[in-house]
């Protein structure tokens, strides 16, 4: 199967649109959606048999088999992977499970996803712990990131939450190196890998963090509401879901498997998503994305835009800062986003929260260079808010 626009027929995306924001919500291929629909039909055909044989914790259930397939793909140790609805949900489960006391410190970075920062703030307020934010400003190398983070470790640091690929700035952090350094200092590490699986060749065991969470519904093309939480064996016993249900006392991962009557089809359809991703050729998808991002970097440079970080720190996403004559607010950026779609049918992710106009470009398997050219041409013709 060819990648780029010829692959678009496998998705149900609006054929008139240019979609450059896969990173926010993902997009699920039609055949994976069909697999999910078949699972839902089976659930409604015989609910009792479905829940007893597919969901309720047992190593032979379809849910555990799906988890085993994803564990093998991500090189997570067997039995140490649970499904959650999203990376945000998984991180909150770890935060609520992790014991903190007054005087303890939780370390995050200035690139942290806002929902995760709020969750960490809430947990610190509940426990009397202190939230420390490492300012990782304008990094241009892995060394910059490593030094900024490790410089904020103290003898009171108990837990660090570190992005694998940052959301707002689309930078890949050297998490294996950071995890090793934190381990030497006795600090537990939780990796926010929301954008990692499918975008990177992910090896969870090699990274060797205490917890790793990643969304399958983004770059692995699974249905929305499917994410993976890995817990190291030494941490698994105390890692529990926020919802207490029948199997809570079984611990990890069974306590996460069944949290009441709900639609589990997104989790059960992840093997279909994995099969689709592998049919494209995982390494091929990743190489395609890097090629598109490199091309976009060249094209945006002609507009005077600056890519954040080095190109080597980008995978399937990159953020570009457009030159403006005055500060931009986020409301203006969002209105411009809507105008781009209304006039040009181009979907992207602008941001004005820093006062600067930034664009995050996502290079999914269905994106090609013609999409980038179409966007750059629209910018050249119409400009952007406060263009210099």
Automatic annotation (TrEMBL):
The record's listing under InterPro entries reads: Aminotrans_V_dom, PyrdxlP-dep_Trfase, PyrdxlP-dep_Trfase_major, PyrdxlP-dep_Trfase_small
The alphabetical list of record keywords is:
Pyridoxal phosphate
Q: What sections of the sequence does the record tag as coiled-coil?
A: none
Which positions fall inside the Aminotransferase class V domain?
Answer: 62-334
Q: Which domain of life is it from?
A: Bacteria
Q: Does the keyword Membrane apply?
A: no
Put simply, this protein is called Aminotransferase class V domain-containing protein
Q: Which species does this protein come from?
A: Candidatus Viadribacter manganicus
State the organism's lineage.
Bacteria, Pseudomonadati, Pseudomonadota, Alphaproteobacteria, Hyphomonadales
């Amino acid at each position: 199967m060819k990648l780029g626009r010829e692959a678009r027929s496998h998705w149900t995306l609006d054929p008139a649109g240019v979609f450059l924001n896969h990173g926010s919500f993902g997009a699920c291929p039609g055949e994976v959606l069909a697999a999910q629909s078949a699972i839902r039909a089976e659930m409604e055909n015989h609910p009792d048999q479905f829940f007893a044989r597919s969901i309720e914790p047992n190593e032979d259930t379809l849910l555990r088999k799906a988890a085993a397939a994803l564990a093998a793909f991500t090189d997570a140790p067997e039995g140490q992977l649970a499904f959650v609805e999203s990376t945000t949900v998984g991180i909150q489960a770890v935060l609520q499970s992790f014991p903190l006391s007054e005087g303890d410190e939780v370390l995050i970075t200035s690139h942290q996803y806002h929902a995760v920062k709020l969750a960490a703030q809430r947990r610190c307020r509940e426990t009397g712990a202190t939230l420390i934010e490492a300012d990782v400003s304008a990094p241009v190398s892995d060394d910059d990131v490593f030094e900024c983070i490790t410089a904020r470790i103290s003898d009171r640091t108990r837990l660090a939450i570190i992005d694998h690929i940052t959301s707002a700035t689309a930078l890949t952090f050297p998490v294996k190196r950071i995890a090793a350094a934190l381990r030497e200092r006795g600090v537990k590490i939780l990796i926010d890998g929301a954008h990692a699986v499918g975008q990177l060749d992910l090896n969870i065991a090699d990274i060797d963090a205490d917890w790793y969470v990643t969304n399958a519904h983004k770059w692995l093309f699974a249905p929305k509401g499917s994410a993976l939480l890995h817990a190291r064996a030494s941490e698994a016993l105390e890692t529990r879901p926020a919802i207490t249900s029948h199997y809570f006392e079984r611990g990890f991962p069974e306590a996460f498997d069944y949290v009441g009557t709900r639609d589990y089809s997104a989790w059960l359809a992840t093997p279909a998503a994995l099969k689709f991703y592998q049919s494209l050729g995982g390494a091929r998808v990743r190489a395609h994305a890097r090629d598109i991002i490199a091309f976009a970097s060249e094209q945006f440079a002609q507009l005077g835009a600056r890519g954040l970080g080095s190109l080597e720190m980008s995978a399937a996403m990159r953020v570009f800062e457009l030159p403006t004559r005055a500060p931009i607010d986020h409301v203006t950026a969002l209105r411009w986003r809507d105008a781009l779609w209304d006039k040009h049918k181009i979907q992207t992710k602008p941001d004005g929260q820093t006062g600067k106009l930034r664009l995050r470009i996502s290079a999914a398997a269905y994106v090609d260079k013609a999409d980038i050219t179409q966007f750059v041409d629209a910018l050249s013709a119409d400009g952007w808010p406060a263009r210099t």
